[in-house]
Every structure is written in structure tokens, then in C-alpha cells.
Q: What sequence folds into this?
């Protein structure tokens, strides 16, 4: 619906300059831009330019996110660290924390960093990929504003809480599984609202215990107002394994709070007791395992590639042309987009123009402008 391709160099320069215009230091702005656009490179448009203004710039303007990141190490050991992000840029906090975990792993075999008081850090797969590219197995997760109901519940008690793992392979793409522990996530519902797509059946439950369907914008408002909640992987009840998604979501909630004395659950709703907006105080964790402390990166990559290829070469269901492994579809999308650019929908086009005009970045002209 009204999508226009914007070249990568143009959107990269603009987003970086916009972050700088909102007070983010230049080197940090480059990190924020890279994480943001990595979503669009992989075809995860719900977390790319679609969230540039409402999730990052608007929160800086509202004073609930700090453009200058105070990355404070509260405690550290040779293999671990606890970081307080002081509500700075989540992408910067995530990048520095994962690199710290990787550096520890390279020296000691394994490293873990737990973070408190952060903000939305973009796609979790970015950080798992950082580790895989450097020959490590990378694991990360984050809690989020409460919008997902536990099994047999109807109230949003925890976030979409992605469980994300990256494993190096000998292929063009590493194995990277980056999934929410809910069936869908808030970003997808926001994206569906922008493009006029209805809620997918079974993904949202109302306070009456019945599925919410229809208009995504209405569903999103109900979630925000506490009248509905997202469902965990497996869906409503236990018949299709909803308790499994619930259990994994709680693992992420615990690891994002207990090691760093962080906020959790309803404390992450971004509002104080009077209903005024406040920082989200999110928690993350980052784990790196260096393959060279086992039998070596080369062997690890080769064996991982063998396993993935054996699965992809297994018998396919009738009517299905191909079996995929995690990271493959994203790689394919990047191959399609790398020489063209990122598709920008009409709603985001208007936001980009508004930001450009607000900051006086008149040197930027976009393909959708007549």
C-alpha cells in the first residue's frame, strides 16, 4: 500500500543525522541507525523505519529516553558484568553489552552481561548475529511493556520477551532464531494498523477470555488500555501448548530482572501511579560462548552447516517447495534488497518528511516526493 523504495545510503544518512539532531552523539547515532535498518534489511519492517519516530524520537522528545547514554558498569568479574543503562539509547546499550560479553568469552570461554534501566533495543537478532560473526554462540533476551497474558489468564503481565540465539555456520548466513515468546508482537500489530491489515485470529485475547479479531487499530487500543492481551506461543489455553510459550516467556522475564535487580511486569508499562509517562526501565541479558574454547570455530561452523543442510534436504510436505532454517529467509530478503533499498509505507513517509522539516535537514530529498 503506497510503498516506495528508498536507497540504503540515503535512508542511512538521514536516520543518522536525525538521531544526531535529537541529541544522540555521532558514533552512538551510527549504532542506532545500523540496528534500526538491520530490521529492514532482514524484512522485519515492524521494527525498522516503521518504529524510527514513534519508538525512539518521540520518546527522546517526551523526556523518557536519554539521547546521551550513560553506560555504567555496576559490577564486573572476568566473565560477567551488570550494567545500568540509565534510560539511554537501547541500541547503544545492547551493542556495548554484547561486545563486552563476546570479549569476555574470547578470553575465558563464556561471558554474560545483565542490563537494567534500558530502553527498546531494536531487533534482538542483531546482537546474536554480532556474536555469531565473531565465532561465538550468542544468546540474548529482553523484557518489555506488559502486553502478554499467562496461560489461563487474560491480563497482560509480561512482554513479548524474545528468546534469540545465533550460531555460526559455514554458510553465507548464520543460524539466527529471533522470535517473541508470544504468537505475535506489539510491533506487528502497529505495522498491521499502518497498512490496514486485520488482526490475525487467535493472537489476542479479550478480558472475557474470547479471541479478539478485526481492526488492528482497535485491537491495539484495547491492549494499551488493558482490555485485551497478546497470547503466548501455542495460543489460548493448553491444547496447542500455550503453556510452553508462557514458560519460555517467564524465563526471559526472570533473566531480564533477577540478576541485575531490574524492573519487571507492570513496572514496565511506561506510566507512573498517576498515569503520567515515564521511562520504561527495560532489562536485557547477553550471553556469548566462544567456539574456540571447545573444538574450534572451523569445526563448529562446518558441523552446524551439515546439520542445517540435512534438515533442509529432508522430505518436504506435498505442495511445499522448500524447507528453511532460521536466518535463511532474512538472508534471501537482503539479497533482494541490497542493491535497491528499503520499502517505506505511506505513513512512515509522512513521518520522515515531518522529522526532516522539523530539524531543517533540507539537503534530503526522498523518492516519494513529487
A:
Amino acid at each position: 500500500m503506497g510503498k516506495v523504495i528508498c536507497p540504503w545510503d540515503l535512508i542511512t544518512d538521514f536516520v543518522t543525522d536525525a538521531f544526531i539532531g535529537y541529541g544522540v552523539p555521532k558514533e552512538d547515532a551510527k549504532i542506532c541507525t545500523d540496528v534500526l535498518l538491520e530490521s529492514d534489511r532482514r524484512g522485519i519492517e515492524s521494527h525498522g523505519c516503521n518504529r524510527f519516530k514513534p519508538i525512539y524520537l518521540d520518546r527522546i522528545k517526551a523526556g523518557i529516553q536519554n539521547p546521551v547514554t550513560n553506560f555504567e558498569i555496576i559490577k564486573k568479574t572476568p566473565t560477567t558484568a551488570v550494567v545500568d543503562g540509565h534510560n539511554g539509547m537501547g541500541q547503544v546499550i545492547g551493542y556495548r553489552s554484547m561486545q563486552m560479553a563476546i570479549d569476555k568469552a574470547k578470553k575465558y570461554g563464556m561471558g554474560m552481561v545483565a542490563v537494567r534501566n534500558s530502553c527498546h533495543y531494536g531487533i534482538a537478532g542483531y546482537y546474536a548475529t554480532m556474536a555469531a560473526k565473531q565465532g561465538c554462540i550468542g544468546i540474548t533476551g529482553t523484557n518489555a511493556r506488559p502486553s502478554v497474558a499467562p496461560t489461563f489468564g487474560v491480563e497482560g503481565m509480561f512482554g513479548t520477551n524474545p528468546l534469540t540465539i545465533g550460531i555460526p555456520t559455514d554458510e553465507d548466513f548464520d543460524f539466527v532464531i529471533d522470535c517473541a515468546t508470544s504468537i505475535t508482537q506489539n510491533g506487528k500489530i502497529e505495522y498491521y494498523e499502518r497498512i490496514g491489515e486485520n488482526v490475525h485470529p487467535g493472537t489476542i485475547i479479550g478480558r472475557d477470555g474470547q479471541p479478539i479479531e478485526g481492526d488492528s487499530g482497535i485491537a491495539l487500543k484495547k491492549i494499551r488500555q488493558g482490555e485485551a492481551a497478546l497470547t503466548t506461543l501455542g495460543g489460548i489455553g493448553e491444547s496447542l501448548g500455550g503453556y510452553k510459550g508462557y514458560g519460555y516467556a517467564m524465563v526471559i522475564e526472570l533473566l531480564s530482572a533477577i540478576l541485575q535487580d531490574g524492573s519487571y511486569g507492570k513496572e514496565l508499562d511506561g506510566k507512573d501511579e498517576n498515569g503520567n509517562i515515564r521511562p520504561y526501565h527495560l532489562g536485557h541479558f547477553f550471553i556469548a560462548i566462544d567456539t574456540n574454547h571447545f573444538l574450534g570455530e572451523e569445526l563448529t561452523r562446518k558441523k552446524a552447516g551439515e546439520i542445517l543442510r540435512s534438515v533442509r534436504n529432508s522430505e518436504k510436505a506435498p505442495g511445499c517447495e522448500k524447507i528453511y532454517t532460521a536466518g535463511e529467509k532474512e538472508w534471501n530478503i537482503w539479497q533482494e534488497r541490497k542493491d535497491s533499498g528499503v520499502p517505506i509505507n505511506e505513513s512512515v513517509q509522512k513521518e520522515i518528511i515531518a522529522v526532516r522539516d522539523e530539524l531543517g535537514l533540507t539537503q534530503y530529498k526522498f523518492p516519494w516526493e513529487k
